[in-house]
Structures
1.
Amino acid sequence: MSAYLIVDTKINNPTEYEEYKKLAKPIAEKFGGTYRVRGGAMDVLENTLWTPTRIVIIEFPDMKSAQAFANSDEYVPVKPMRLNNAECTLFIVEGV
């Protein structure tokens, strides 16, 4: 069953964040990740829990693959680039 890594990102340093994107994408792809949404136009219809900023959705073959990406040795040195240049909410959800 597919799993989706979903990130809501408020980018604070666009230049550094662009470098993060270049490095993170091939790592996600190595673990079977396919970008489905990457900051496109958004129409927020309801926002009683939170107001999203910039959404990224990466589809993985399963929960285990998504978790393996997020915890991988390859991603460990790249993750601080995201944390230092953006505010994020990140979670993995299983598909149907």
2.
Amino acid sequence: MSRMVNCILLGEEAEGLDYAPYPGELGQRIFENVSKQAWQRWLEHQTMLINEYRLSPIEPDARKFLETEMDKFFFAGGSAAPQEYTPPT
């Protein structure tokens, strides 16, 4: 049986992650409060941020930016797309 969580993003009970997807306190909060479906939404949003801002995830400043956006995405009202971003049709 899969682990269920009350997903903070979806606002309902859903299948939880199998392990903490990120190190430290933030990763533990995500593990306890975020579903697999919501995590997938973050990965898509993160990919958009990396592409739009032309980030290199190996650079410390880019990693810090993405960590901040991840925290906002799940726990602080959401992470916004860049103003000039146009979603694909």
